[in-house]
Design goal:
- This protein has about 100 residues and is mainly α.
- The protein is about 60% helix and about 0% strand.
- It is built from 3 helices and no strands.
- Helix 2 packs across helix 3.
- The termini are far apart.
- Keywords: Coiled coil.
């Protein structure tokens, strides 16, 4: 049994419906991936960064590409932790 041929109008309507469905699937997959990545952040000590620095860091890393950003960051020397505060009453500089 042969299917009757669709008119151009029916074909267009069918294609538009498929396009909407695919767009919804893409958005759903995008949300799921972003939720997964957001979940990873909860395990990181991001409170050491300001909100602006955190957003800028991610924006630039995404802009240049994750691999390139990671390579550039790994090439930097290890950060030396800054002292939280100097003891009260002690000298501001070392006498040695």
């Amino acid at each position: 049994m042969d299917m009757p041929k669709m008119t151009e109008r029916e074909r267009l309507a069918d294609l538009e419906a498929r396009q909407r469905k695919v767009a919804e699937e893409v958005e759903s997959a995008r949300r799921a991936l972003r939720d997964r990545y957001a979940g990873m952040v909860t395990d990181l000590p991001i409170e050491a960064l300001s909100e602006r620095d955190f957003k800028d860091l991610l924006t630039h890393a995404i802009r240049v590409g994750g691999s390139q950003a990671l390579s550039a960051l790994k090439a930097l020397p290890a950060a030396v932790p800054e002292p939280k505060s100097r003891p009260k009453g002690g000298p501001a500089t070392s006498m040695a």
